[in-house]
């Protein structure tokens, strides 16, 4: 069994609470990947420069009821190479953002190549891992496709930690009908994915489809 497959099985088992194949010290399933901006065209990290690597960002949220330690959590793209290691604790409902520049600093500290978060603009996966002894558990994963990755367009869970993804596309509107759909709201780095028009626009799109001629 491959290491990745084993990790997937263990993660699913531990976090579902159905059957535990291997014990984990804590389930980090309450921490979720919450928002991703993979193709920056602005200075998102505030260092007075716009950079394709340093201004990418990934936001996580603690969607559970209690505080959780982040010390064992890592981020990767689809290559499964770790791009960032978290530290500290995250209170219920709080967010943590990782910019590409944070990733470069972490990689440098750990003797890795300075590739940053390495979020492919043609589509990629973002994975959140938990190191548990000798095991690496997959806590959360999101795979984005090309229309989610254009200049300054983020893709985000609505509401925070929820199962629906929408584009936060105020800076680069999307009018297509391939999910995730546009919300008209601006990206929300390190803040709640609040989007007052999202529910309304989603409902309107659903409504239109009901009356469309096949
Ligand atoms: Ca910057
Ligand atoms: Ca990118
Ligand atoms: Ca956000």
Structure write-up:
The model is unreliable at 1-26 (pLDDT under 50). The protein has one domain (3-210). It has 214 residues and is an alpha+beta fold. The protein starts with a helix and ends with a helix. The protein is built from three helices and eleven strands, in the order H-E-E-E-E-E-E-E-H-E-E-E-E-H. The protein binds calcium ion (CA) (3 copies). Residues 38-39, 52, 56, 119, 121 line the site of one calcium ion.
Low-confidence stretches: 1-26
Structural class: alpha+beta
What is the average per-residue confidence, as pLDDT, rounded to a whole number?
A: 86
Helix content: 10-25%
Shape: globular
Major beta-sheet overview: 5 strands, antiparallel
Quaternary state reads single chain
Provide the β-strand percentage band: 25-35%
């Amino acid at each position: 069994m491959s290491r990745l497959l084993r990790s997937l099985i263990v993660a699913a088992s531990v976090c579902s609470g159905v059957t535990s194949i291997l014990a984990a010290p804590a389930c980090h399933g309450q921490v979720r990947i919450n928002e991703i901006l993979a193709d920056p065209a602005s200075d998102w990290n505030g260092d007075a420069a716009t950079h394709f690597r340093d201004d990418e960002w990934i936001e996580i949220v603690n969607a559970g009821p209690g505080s959780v330690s982040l010390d064992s959590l890592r981020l990767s793209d689809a290559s499964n190479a770790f791009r960032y290691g978290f530290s500290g604790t995250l209170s219920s409902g709080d967010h943590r953002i990782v910019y590409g520049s944070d990733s470069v600093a972490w990689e440098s500290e750990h003797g890795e190549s300075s590739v940053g978060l390495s979020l492919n603009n043609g589509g990629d996966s973002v994975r959140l891992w938990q190191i548990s002894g000798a095991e690496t558990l997959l806590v959360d994963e999101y795979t984005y496709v090309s229309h989610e990755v254009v200049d300054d367009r983020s893709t985000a869970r609505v509401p925070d930690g929820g199962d629906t993804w929408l584009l936060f596309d105020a800076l680069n509107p999307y009018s297509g009908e391939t999910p995730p759909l546009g919300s008209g709201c601006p990206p929300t780095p390190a803040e709640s994915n609040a989007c007052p028009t999202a529910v309304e626009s989603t409902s309107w799109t659903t409504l239109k489809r009901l009356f469309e001629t096949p």
